[in-house]
Write a structure and sequence with these properties.
By secondary structure, the protein is mainly beta. The chain is 0% helix and 18% strand. The chain starts with 14 loop residues before the first strand and ends in a 9-residue tail after the last strand.
Length: 198
Amino acid sequence: MKFKDTKYGDLTGKTYNSKIDVCGLGLTSLEGAPKIVNGHFDCFDNQLTSLEGAPKIVNGFFNCCNNQLASLKGAPKEVYGYFGCSDNYLTTLKGSPKEVFGYFECFNNQLKSLEGSPEKIKGDFKCSDNQLTTLKGSPKEISEHFDCSNNKLISLKGSPEVVGGYFDCSNNKLKSLEGAPKEVHGSFNCFDNQLISL
C-alpha cells in the first residue's frame, strides 16, 4: 500500500495544513505524500523500507519508528519538532535532517557509527541500544539530554562538546572517560563499564 492509496489521496508536491496520521496501515511506500506538512507526520508501525517520497519540510514531529528502514535517504530536510526513527534496521544516520528543533531518537537500530547525524539538536538525542563503538559523528551541541547507553563504546572521543542536560554512557566497554563532553549541565552517568581511569 502506498501513501496515495490512503484517505489522504495523492498530495505529491502540495502543502498540507494539518496532522497526517498513517500509522499501522501496512504502508510500503510514501509515494504521494505532500512536500510540506504544517503539522505532524506520523508513519509509525508500517512496512516501509525507504523514506523516498516523504515530505521535505515538517512543521511538527516526524515519526517513522517501527518500520523496516535500513537508511534515512529521502527523510525530511527540515523538521521543527521531534524526529523519531527508532526500532528499524538502520546502519547509518546519513540522510538525517541537518538540524532538528526538538528531540531525535534513533535507539534500537543497528548503528555502528553516528556519522550523518544532525549537526544541532534542540532537544534530546537518544542513540542507546545500538552497536556503537565510537561517538564520532555526534552532533556538536545538544540542548537537552544525550543517551548513548547499552552500546559497545570503547571510547568517548567524538562526544558532543556541550550537553545541556544529562549524559548517559552506562553499560558500555569504556576503560576511560577521555573524550567526554567539555560541558555537561546535568548528571553524568557512566556505571556498568570497565573503567580503570577517569
